[in-house]
Amino acid sequence: MLDVVFRKTDLGTEEVRGRSHALSPKLRQLLIMIDGKTPVNQLALQLPEKEMVHRLMELEWDGFIERVGGVSAGGAVSSPKPAPAPAPAASPSAPVSLGGVTISAGQVARIRNILYMSNQNQLSGALDDLLKQLDGPVDKSVLEAGVTRWLNLMRERGHEATAQTYLAQIRAVLKG
Predict the structure, then answer these.
(1) Which of 49, 60, 146, 173 could form a disulfide with 110 if both were Cys (CB 3.0 to 4.6 A apart)?
(2) 57 and 113: one domain?
(3) For the purposes of burial, counting CB atoms within 10 Å of the CB of 20, is it exposed (0-12), middle (13-18) or buried (19 or more)?
(4) In this structure, are 11 and 74 located in the same domain?
(5) Confidence class for position 22, pLDDT limits 50, 70, 90
(6) Can you tell me the mean pLDDT for 163-168?
(7) Can you give the residue range of the structural domain that contains 46?
(8) How far apart are CA 142 and CA 145, in angstroms?
(9) Is the confidence at residue 76, as pLDDT, over 70?
């Protein structure tokens, strides 16, 4: 996620001008620094990586920023890569239960963003097909199956600790 370039949305630009959403000073500072050209890892904000990712996710979820694309080795902004062939579904070892809650479209969108970041940063696009399924209306069973598949793939690729961090964020979205 740290090689991603973000730009302000209209809401983000409005927030910088008017302070109408009462962002915390660190969130506001990060929002001001986002220019649509500079990758996150080159922003001059001194935050630990985990905190930076959480703050970026918050700004993205709340509609203040959006992704422009990745950064190539030479530092130039590139458009998203074409989707690779879908990876075979992992057989779930232990299905993920999202509890007995009703899941709103907003929650699905936030969970999709979490899975998207993981797909880009750790899984090299292996979940592109799943993310397409989550674009439209999704019922709880489809979302649970998708999160289970994602979690198993993260484990298979040695990203257990990162998966647990993302899973905690998914559970927080469901509580919110």
Answers:
(1) 173
(2) no
(3) exposed
(4) yes
(5) confident
(6) 81
(7) 5-78
(8) 5
(9) no
